[in-house]
Write the structure tokens for this entry.
Amino acid sequence: MAQMPRNARWVAASLTAIGTLLGSPLYAHHGYALSYDTDNIGTIEGVVEDVFWSNPHVQYYVAVEQEDGSTETWIVETHNLRMLQNAGWTRDTIEVGDTIKVTGYLGREGRPRIAGMTFELEDGSVHELFGEVKSSSE
Amino acid sequence: MNRRFARFGLGLLAAPLIAAAGPEDFEGEWLLALERAATIDFGTLEFEPSPEGLRAYIDGGPVDLRFGEDDSVTVTLDWSDSGDRLHESLLEGRLSDGMITGRILEAGDQVGTWRAVPEKDRARILKESALPPGLIDLSGTWSVGSRGTHKDSFDLTEAGRAADDAYDPTLDDPHLRCVSGGLIRMLDGPFPIEIIPRKDHLLVLFQYFEEQQRIYMDGRSFPEDVDSLQSAMGYSIGRWEGPTLVVETRGLSEALWDSRGMPTSADARVTQRLYLDESGNLHNEITLVDPQNYKRPVLRHAYWTYDPDAEQQEYDCDPHSFYRSLDIEGRLEEYWGRSRTRR
């Protein structure tokens, strides 16, 4: 069941298929499980404020509009450069100013971060970045 | 990939049971091979007697063991994947003709098969290169073939448990700050390595964090003060034992076993046994002896595949994203406050 990000405009989605990609892992004292709530998949939409194209993880910072009209910066985490490049992504795939929609695991404790799995880019193209989301440290 | 293993499959499950096997037939050390999809992962399976009965360990970590009434054996393996997600696999098997064979189950579904043979019979499932030592050439670029069983839990000492409990991987993981996690973690990295023979040593270049390991091959001993070296990659000396390059490393700094923070102490000693199999894969059997943190040696059996086309790229790491993320999340103060426990 997807959880609504606190104060964020979001789009609920049925993401059963994404969940099944992960098999049945258990979660314990691991970095990934402590950063993201793997029971909660959500979607954010917003305007890219900044692109971090480097290791350890490529990240995008996205301004998400709130109900009161203000914006909140969300961290969209992906994976290391090699994985991105192998997936055909470049520094220019997502640029500052682009409007993107991202679906993935939401940060724990209401933190404004999401582990990006499905990206809908400004041109309408949809990218399943990975079959499975990787940890926050490898 | 080891195509030669592809011929082993479910057919082995139908092998006839020659004689009923009892727990005593399992005692000792076994070479374990897990076949899932197109990958074969190796490990060490040990059955050890105890006052409570036989106990089992995989790669030095305890695993649940059950014997069925129908002469079957089931071992429960907890392991972490490349994304640090924890899995539980049931290895169901039977002993027949000196080999345990069976299937791997996850959440009730069969995901592969497994075999194990006594260590003395390891050639039945893993044949080493027949090349004489003088002709063995480890130079070149190698990509990850297998990370081994990647057993997750180990018997920690009180000090090891305290270190593990104190670790917060979202704040303390040095890789988030672009700081190398040290030798063991580099040997488990996802990127290619390059081995370059030099005059008196082998130079191993890791793309991962652009680390390097120098393995001195000139017969030298460890420096007297090696244990005070406290470096991420330590001080390594190597020697050939037949077709196997045995590398011993000391002088490691307190480092991290993996991103979840399984600890290693400055007194840790690491032995690598490097050898080629008949398919040309470079095996790396690691033994970590660190009684300060672990009650028994921790093992890992990984291998690389020869990959002359692998590019050694710059590792291009910038901790900016870590600090910016903490700032966005309002956790910077929490991070600064943990500096005393950070490695």
User: Anything to note?
Assistant: Chain B touches chain A at residues 78, 80-88, 106-107, 152, 164, 167-170, 173, 175-176, 178, 190-191, 259-261, 313, 315-318, 320-322, 324-325, 328-329 (CB under 8 Å). Residues 1-18 of chain B have pLDDT under 50 and may be disordered. The radius of gyration of chain B is 21 Å.
